[in-house]
Design a protein that fits this description.
This protein is α+β, with helices and mostly antiparallel strands. The protein has one domain: Arc Repressor Mutant, subunit A. Helix content is 56%, strand content 15%. It has four helices and three strands. Strands 1-3-2 form a three-stranded antiparallel β-sheet. Strand 2 and strand 3 form a beta hairpin.
Length: 108
């Protein structure tokens, strides 16, 4: 299966969406994205953790220490109120962008 490099900012959107339902630790976030994308999107740790830290600095997610399903200490990330608002803004922008690109690809 072909793997796709994500455009700038897309990883942030995917992370926000992945943690929007429940707090998750980093590995679970990357697994969730991979699973939901049917194995097309694979997030490397070298990209994931800098993105998580960037989102945390921006106040869009917050982290709390907890215990993972395999009994390991892990940081669990969840959306803040600001993050939930940003997720909606970015989802809307993404829909507009993908519709516009699709239009150009189909008609140009």
């Amino acid at each position: 299966m072909t793997h796709i490099d994500l455009p700038q900012g897309t990883l942030d959107l995917l992370i926000l969406r992945a943690v929007s339902l429940e707090p998750q630790h980093g590995w679970a976030i990357s697994e969730r994205i991979q699973q939901v994308s049917r194995d097309v999107l694979r997030i490397q740790q070298g990209s994931l953790y800098p993105a998580l830290h960037r989102l945390e600095r921006r106040g869009l997610i917050q982290a709390k220490w907890g215990t993972s399903e395999n009994n390991r200490r892990a940081k669990f990330y969840q959306l803040t109120k600001k993050g939930r608002q940003q997720l909606e803004v970015e989802k809307d922008a993404w829909r507009k962008l993908t519709a516009a690109v699709a239009n150009v690809l189909e008609t140009a």
